[in-house]
Amino acid sequence: MDDGKPKLLDQLRQQIRVRNYSIRTEAVYAEWVKRYIRFHHYRHPVEMGAAEIEVFLTHLAVERDVSASTQNQALAALLFLYKEVLKLDLPWLQGVVRAKKPKHLPVVLTRIEVDALLAQLQGDSWIVANLLYGAGLRLLEALRLRVKDVDFTRR
């Protein structure tokens, strides 16, 4: 029975676009909502709440052994769904078992290692790698860079 209301994922995408989130955020949030619904045997999220979110996130942490950032991403997607799309306020989620954040220092290449790495590249790969290193661009920023984005007079 069609009540003229957009489907849940269409509503989710609409709310994400209204807020100018990136297309990648939209895709990831939609995927997490689909996984959440599938995990709970296709029950509609309106019929579920904090308890089901806790079970899902605990499952991700304990049984799927996802990273802390992955679990936090899933939580953010579900909170967005409930708060912004369904307009439901959730009580604080206390029973969630969070994935442990690994304690490690980021690896930073020395100048000699960077020179050796860049010496192995050529063509477009060399240009992109130089932009990543020299200008501090992220990968997608470098890949989407256009000639008109570069100020050649200021180098």
- What is the C-level CATH assignment of the largest domain? Mainly Alpha
Helix content: 40-55%
Q: Uncertain regions: pLDDT < 50 for 5+ in a row?
A: none
Shape: extended
CATH topology of the largest domain: DNA polymerase, domain 1
Biggest sheet descriptor:
none
**What structural class do you assign from the helix and strand content?**
mainly alpha
Write out the CATH superfamily name of the largest domain: Tyrosine recombinase, N-terminal domain
Tell me the total number of β-strands: 0
> End-to-end distance, in Å?
61 Å
Question: Mean pLDDT, rounded to whole units?
Answer: 87
Backbone CA Rg: 21 Å
Helix-strand topology string? HHHHHHH
Q: Tell me the CATH architecture of the largest domain.
A: Orthogonal Bundle
If helices are DSSP runs of H or I spanning 4 or more residues, what is the number of helices?
7
Task: Provide a concise account of the structure shown.
The chain is mostly helical.
Would you mind describing this structure in some detail?
This protein has 155 residues and is an all-alpha fold. It has two domains: 8-85, DNA polymerase, domain 1, CATH 1.10.150; 111-149, no CATH class. The protein is 55% helix and 0% strand. The protein contains seven helices and no strands. The protein has helices spanning 8-18, 23-39, 50-62, 68-85, 111-119, 123-134, 139-143. Helix 3 (50-62) runs antiparallel to helix 4 (68-85).
